[in-house]
Write a structure and sequence with these properties.
single chain; about 230 residues; 4-stranded antiparallel beta sheet; 10 helices; binds adenosine-5'-triphosphate
Length: about 230
């Protein structure tokens, strides 16, 4: 479904991606792991066209994404839950959910506000609260709900549970697990290895702008040397 091959990216003269390659099959949950500043966000932003890849290829459902405007990439069916959530502060919860809702692919059973509330019941009671008055956990649930309301085939989450309390994190992992079981493909960046190993099929460890290790949860669990070398924060 998503294939990155030898992707390079720069910020001015400074190179951030040095040949990122990974692939995600339809229905899979894959992770990008690695310490801070290794290129995970840059990889995601290259997929979305927020950062322009300077080389390599990014294919989604057979279409090349490099050089494509972000909104056109989103319209192909990629929903982004960005780092920092980026909720509209001066819109209500409900307005945030519907403001960017769409069904460009003509999904027959599209996401609705009711379905988002069924996934995150705590959002329903906060329908009229302004975005900036929501808690971090509510904002993250809203950011996921807002992305789902664009009816993506692939959901990408950058720092899915950063800064959230354990109980809220659990709710978010349970929700992601539920939507992945319903067939959603997910690419996720996070630091909670135990949770990621529970819900993911495949992991990619990123070090200085390239993938240095990939494998299943069982392989990562068994490989203490790799975890120590690349993932201890
Ligand atoms: P984090 O978890 O801290 O977000 P990351 O793995 O997502 O880390 P990136 O944010 O992709 O890493 O950063 C990769 C490299 O690119 C780092 O060296 C970082 O300093 C650099 N970088 C990121 N954003 C910019 C920017 N806007 N301008 C210049 N350099 C940047």
């Amino acid at each position: 479904m998503l294939e990155l091959k030898d992707v390079t990216a720069h910020y001015g003269t400074s190179q951030a991606l040095f040949g990122m390659s990974l692939d995600l099959q339809a229905g899979q949950v894959a992770t990008l792991l690695g310490r801070n500043g290794m290129g995970k966000t840059t990889t995601i932003n290259s997929v979305m066209g927020i950062v322009k890849a300077s080389g390599g290829s990014i294919r989604f459902d057979g279409q090349e994404l490099v050089g494509r405007a972000s909104f056109r990439t989103a319209n192909l069916g990629i929903g982004l839950v960005p780092e920092g959530r980026q909720i509209f502060p001066n819109l209500t919860m409900m307005e945030n959910l519907v403001a960017t809702a769409s069904n460009h692919l003509g999904v027959s059973d599209p996401w609705t506000v009711e379905k988002v509330f069924a996934l995150f019941p705590e959002l329903e009671t906060r329908k009229s609260s302004m975005g900036n008055l929501l808690s971090g956990g509510e904002q993250q649930m809203l950011a996921i709900g807002r992305a789902l309301m664009t009816n993506p085939k692939l959901l990408i989450l950058d720092e899915a549970t950063e800064g959230l309390a354990p109980l809220v994190r659990r709710k978010i992992w349970d929700a992601l697990s539920e939507i992945s079981k319903a067939g959603m493909s997910i690419l996720v960046v996070d630091k909670n290895l135990a949770d990621l190993m529970r819900i993911s099929d495949r992991h990619y460890i990123v070090q200085r702008g390239e993938v240095v290790w990939s494998g299943s949860s069982a392989e990562l669990q068994a490989d203490e040397t790799t975890r120590r070398r690349y993932l201890e924060f």
